[in-house]
Amino acid sequence: MVKYKNGNVYVSIDENTGTKIRFSKEDDFHPSFAESMDVSITQKCSQSCNFCYLGCTPKGKHADLMSDYVVNTFIPSLHSYTELALNGNDLDNPTLLPFLEMLKAQKVFANITVNQNQFMYNLQTLADWQENELIHGIGISYKKYEGEFFLCLSKVENVVIHVVAGIFSEEDLYHLASRDLNLLILGYKNIGRGKEYYEHMNRLIADNQDFLKKYLRTKAFYEEFKGVGFDTLACKQLDIKSMLSEDEWETMYQGDDGSFTFYVDLVNNKFAKSSTSNFTYDIKNRNVDDMFNSIRGLNNAKKGVKD
Fold it and tell me: pTM higher than 0.85, yes or no?
């Protein structure tokens, strides 16, 4: 169990399960630094999904994770026990391993998300990285049923299956249910290729979301999985708040984008409140705290000017 203080917030993280608990002696949380970040490290991906909001392709660009900025500014400014959610996709970035080694030395928790195929192709590498504590959690973007895939899951720990509200179907539920899996439901991002896909498939997306909304209101859904989580966008699209009491929502909801976390794109050297934000900032050699304060408007308040 890791414990630390962040502003007026006391945080504990179970390293085995990834469960995070926040506590404050005051009525409101006022963190001094970001607890976690969603970090894009590549736009290369073998899947080329029609709804990919990042527009990843097999010929997409990797971030240079050993650049002067990353090595001398970004990594050194990360606070110990910060959680980084990395989009790994294809794991052939030549700078990925030394990047993970530097994060470990900084006592940063790196979690990586890969697509279903890349998970199976790189199973031993991911298992080795976990054993050596270079990565902690593994997110797997689920695409379709494959018997071999479910056999591979037993080779690693702390796995979360990622599905997208609107893409995740009743058939997918049938294949994933009753396998003792952790499920993370992500909101449908209507940007990038996701915008064009939505224009052609909006009826199917709406039907899948309606099915999910109804089933989420049944006890049976939660009995099918070890754990179920939602990102901020999915909470809005599926109206999760209406399913909970006020006390339950206050206890379980981890906060809006930008309150404890933000998005960093190391491929294009941008950062924003979230990966779907309309407004982005240029990194311009900023350290992590400076970026987080810009997201929260604290830099603007101090300077009295628009960033």
Answer: yes
